[in-house]
Specification:
The chain has helices spanning 33-36, 40-52, 70-88, 93-98; strands spanning 3-10, 13-21, 26-28, 31-32, 59-66. It is built from four helices and five strands. It is elongated, with a radius of gyration of 18 Å. It has a single domain (3-98), classed as Ribosomal Protein S5, domain 2 (2-Layer Sandwich), CATH 3.30.230.10. β3 and β4 form a beta hairpin. By secondary structure, the chain is of the alpha+beta class.
Length: 128
């Protein structure tokens, strides 16, 4: 049985995704994805690539994800699954690209600068 290994990233979250022929079971860090991501929106992120490519019940997905928050993790899982599906069947790429599931989101948190309260916010200025 062939296993496709890909990775997805979003902010500081990294997901290692393993796709194999199966019944549509999605496991994240040893738990069912519905237990791991309590929100329906985050659950949909995990399924989105499979639903758009119409192979929801054909592949088992096993994911190891770490870093970041739950939204970043779910979107990292989504990117990893998309990349794996394209590796299996390159004809799916245009449909997934149209939904924006192939591109890694490059936005990261800007670092805090010294002498400032946050990345851009400054301490209150006092003239007198």
């Amino acid at each position: 049985m062939e296993v496709i290994n890909t990775s997805g990233r979003r902010k500081t979250a990294v997901a290692r995704v393993y796709l194999s022929k199966g019944t549509g079971k999605i496991t994240i860090n040893g738990r069912d994805y519905k237990d791991f991501f309590p929100s329906p929106v985050l659950q949909y992120y995990c399924e989105q690539s499979l639903i758009i490519s119409k192979v929801r019940e054909e592949y088992d997905v096993n994911v190891n994800v770490k870093g970041g928050g739950i939204t970043g993790q779910s979107q990292a899982v989504r990117l990893g699954i998309s990349k794996g599906l394209i590796e299996i069947n390159p004809e799916l790429k245009p449909a997934l690209r149209a939904e924006g599931l192939v591109t890694r989101d490059p936005r990261m948190v800007e670092r805090k600068k010294f002498g400032q309260k946050k990345a851009r916010k400054r301490f209150q200025f006092s003239k007198r």
